[in-house]
Write a structure and sequence with these properties.
alpha/beta; Peroxisomal Thiolase, Chain A, domain 1; 2 domains; 3-stranded mixed sheet; 14 helices; globular
Length: 422
């Protein structure tokens, strides 16, 4: 644990930096493409149909599975595994690390997930329904497909990584949780390089759509690209999305030694729990989580340039998060606030890591991407710094980005990334 204070006061081997980004989102398969879509206002939400449930909307990724997997490996594995393998290989390539000569025993894989195994179980039940539910037709791949460590394990096999691998089940706070775990393991010297973040295959299970629909929390609209609309007065629920974003995390001392490009430095983080409800957020606990992350980073609220919100497009969830943000940031004129789910939907376990990635280029260009689809701002979501419909330029590179990710059963996570300065 880091005590409150500037991370510059820590020795370089305890400072954790991002040196690689690999992602697939419904509107881009690289950081450059994803960022370009966010600045251009390009939605990745499309019409979608899934068995039993029928027609709806979803954020669907379109990446080249065969870029890093054989057809056989993709067929015997999972969609989450394919997303993970794609993002992990892309982040390693982006980092510029000498992968061939890297000690794979000293590479750790820390993957946040919301849930895993539902897709594969639903698929198998559907298949045996064609054979009068005779279980002799049940796939022998089912068990390795559904174990909780599957996405991380598929990455390990794909890349020959022999260090620790596991998934972090943290609901929709999981993307941040993967980053936090990676940073902690580096500081504990459990690994020298961490592949960390989150992945989601959620759109491939009809159960998640049916579940949100039964809660009255699944978005409907006449236009797919306008269905995900956090903070809007007429928002009516979540657009489910798949996706992934994995980072290479390293100690600053190692990154300096190989003259790596540094996207940013992880200077603050926190996790806590509401312990009040299965699905309804607790703004008091969210406020506390944000304050804990700020305290760990040794920062005041007004030093944060961009707050990336978790807001999913549900009525109560958005309003309560805005209450928490207002509690911390008040009327700070220097803090911009945005949301990426308005573009891609809710990518569950990948949400936190993807949403953070969309803001990282602000360390160079000083531009805060917008929240789109706000036609009529809900007064309960009125925040002075909310960037609506069009990107906003600050006139200077951002110094600090704070990333909110909250999830069911009251799990909260906050990560703060700093523009790297030696």
């Amino acid at each position: 644990m880091i005590s409150a204070g500037k991370t510059e006061q820590l020795p370089d081997h305890q400072r954790i930096v991002i040196t690689g980004v690999g992602l697939t989102a419904p509107n881009g398969n690289s950081l450059a493409d994803f960022r370009g879509a966010l600045l251009a206002g390009t939605s990745g939400v499309s019409e979608y149909e899934i068995r039993y449930f029928g027609k709806t909307f979803a954020g669907v990724c379109d990446f080249d599975v065969r870029r890093h997997q054989t057809r056989k490996d993709a067929r015997r594995g999972t969609r989450a595994g394919s997303i993970g393998a794609y993002c992990a290989n892309e982040t390693i390539q982006d980092s510029g690390v000498d992968w061939e000569n890297t000690d794979k025993d000293r590479v750790g894989i820390y993957i946040g997930v919301t849930e895993h195994g539902n897709v594969e179980t639903e698929n198998e039940i559907f298949e045996i329904s064609n054979f009068e539910y005779d279980t002799k037709f049940w796939s022998h791949h089912h068990n390795p497909r559904t174990v909780a460590n599957n996405p991380a394990g598929e990455i390990a096999i794909n890349m020959g990584i022999t260090g620790p691998h596991y998934t972090i089940g943290a609901a929709c706070a999981a993307g941040n949780a993967g980053l936090i775990q990676g940073a902690q393991q580096l500081r504990l010297d459990e690994c020298d390089l961490a592949i960390a973040g989150g992945v989601s295959e959620s759109i491939h299970t009809f159960g998640i759509f049916a579940g949100f629909a039964s809660q009255g929390a699944l978005a409907t609209h006449d236009n797919a690209g306008e269905a995900s609309r956090p903070f809007d007065m007429n928002r009516n629920g979540i657009v489910v999305a798949e996706g992934g974003c994995l980072y290479v995390l390293e100690r600053l001392s190692d990154a300096k030694a190989r003259h790596a490009k540094i996207y940013g430095e992880l200077v603050g983080y926190a996790m806590n729990t509401d312990a009040t409800d299965f699905v309804l957020p607790n703004p008091e606990r969210q406020t506390q989580c944000i304050h804990k992350a700020l305290n760990r980073a040794g920062l005041e609220a007004e030093q944060i340039d961009i707050v990336s919100t978790h807001a999913t497009g549900t009525s109560m969830g958005d309003s309560l998060e805005c209450e928490a943000i207002r509690n911390v940031f008040g009327k700070s004129p220097t803090t911009f606030i945005n949301n990426a789910k308005s573009f891609i939907g809710h990518s569950m376990g990948a949400a936190g890591s993807l949403e953070l990635a969309g803001n990282l280029p602000a360390f160079e260009d000083g531009v805060c991407h917008a929240t789109i689809n706000i036609d009529e701002l809900d007064p309960d979501c009125a925040l002075d710094g909310l960037v609506q419909n069009q990107p906003r330029e600050s006139g200077k590179p951002a110094d600090y980005i704070l990333n909110n990710s909250f999830g069911m059963l009251g799990i909260n996570s906050v990560v703060i990334i700093k523009r790297f300065t030696a």
